[in-house]
Fold:
Amino acid sequence: MTRLLPTSTAGSLPKPSWLAQPQTLWSPWKLAGDELLAGKRDALKLSLHDQLSAGIDIVSDGEQTRQHFVTTFIEHLGGVDFENRKTVKIRNRYEASVPVVVDDVVRKTSVFVDDAAFLRKQTNQPIKWALPGPMTMIDTLYDARYKSREKLAWEFAKILNQEAKELEAAGVDIIQFDEPAFNVFFEEVNDWGVAALERAMEGLNCETAVHICYGYGIKANTDWKKTLGEEWRQYEEIFPTLQQSTVDIVSLECQNSRVPIDLIELIRGKKVMVGAIDVATQAIETPEDVANTLRKALQFVDADKLYPCTNCGMTPLPQHVANAKLQALSAGADIVRRELF
Ligand SMILES: [Zn+2]
Structure:
């Protein structure tokens, strides 16, 4: 990125009401077949328009092309049974009915590559594309085949790497892996989670990012956050391993969070997407709020490595709130940019 403090979003943005129920996480599509394909592309253009009008530098599809950040990817794989589901506890937090791995997992076809190529055609701005991370994928499934979280993660890492290489060839500048599970299973992250993530990124020449957050503002997550105490020190457990890893960018949650900001020091040398927009509230940050968070982060991240961002995705928010938050992010980054010159 040539611009100082390039802004971006962590992931999802609100969907138009004709595509899916607004303000609803994982809302089913309202269209089907060819209409759905065309609808997703129209929604992608609208979302891109909103990002560009707000002055966002690194743009995305706003996840208009997926219903769920993990299962939409898994739906395209072989070896997974979506009919006979089982109930599991996701990230030790909430129960969900999930698909079952019944056979060797394989990527039958590319998943998001056509959508990414379509986004590439719409803009000359740098584009970022999100994929689920291997550990978060295994945590969203019941495994009746490999009987080993590590083995299954490794298989998914290989599949993700195939997809990532095709996304890179389609012109994606940053490939981001979403790993909220990294905030929960510290021992596994350090044992094999980061290694599996590196396997998913192997051989890529574009930039790579890992997004580790405290989740959407849904009740299961806000209840969980209440149990985490005064200071959220989860990042402390995994940052030393990430600092040593091949990942280029770490995307994390800062705004209104109880994460002690000095923990960022543990990944010194990495680029950091600093979450300066709280996605769990409809209150709109002022540009000065955003600037304050960025200034605090600047104590621990070199200015050329700081990427202002949102804490997480904004799908559950009303469209006008999400847009206002994007504008605040841009304006806040502008304030700090001016201070740096
Ligand atoms: Zn997130």
User: Anything to note?
Assistant: The chain has a mean pLDDT of 94.
